[in-house]
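Friendly challenge for the regulars: who can give me the structure tokens for this chain first? No prize, just bragging rights.
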Amino acid sequence: MKALFSPAVAILNRMRYPAKFALLGVIALFVVGFLLAQLALSLRASIDFTEHELDSIRRVPKVLKVVELTQQHRGLSSGVLNGNEELRPRLQKKTEELVVAMKAADEAIVADAAPTAHRRWSEVRSGWKRCAAVACRWPRGTTCRPIPGSSAPLSWPSMILATMAI
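First reply, four minutes later:
Bragging rights claimed.
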């Protein structure tokens, strides 16, 4: 241990007291400056994370409305598919509400969302189009039946889960 500190002791023995205190002050200043820089970087990262959360929280009510309406639409669709024609007007109204809610959520997400949210939202939009148009026929006066040989690539439950993952 003596051999390790002997060069520093030799240098300090040659210095006068003001120079020794100045050297210790510079070392302390360097350490405090490094710690303050680390603190500033940590606080900046925390502020950035909080800003992203605030941006996201503005989209939450619109996305939750889409989830709610999607679940209601799924229930009404199931009723119509099972032959309950009394639900068809409510289903059409719910479809219109869902389209409006999807447009509002689309505007909110496209405006300032992360790339992963854009990708997930485009999957939800394409899934909605497939579930609403590809898998069923909707002519008036007939029951909605699955098109033979077709399958919606994104099912209702997976579409709802994808919406909630945004």
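Residues 52 and 114 are 9 Å apart (CA to CA). The helical segments are 2-14, 17-81, 88-112, 115-134, 156-164. Your move, everyone else.
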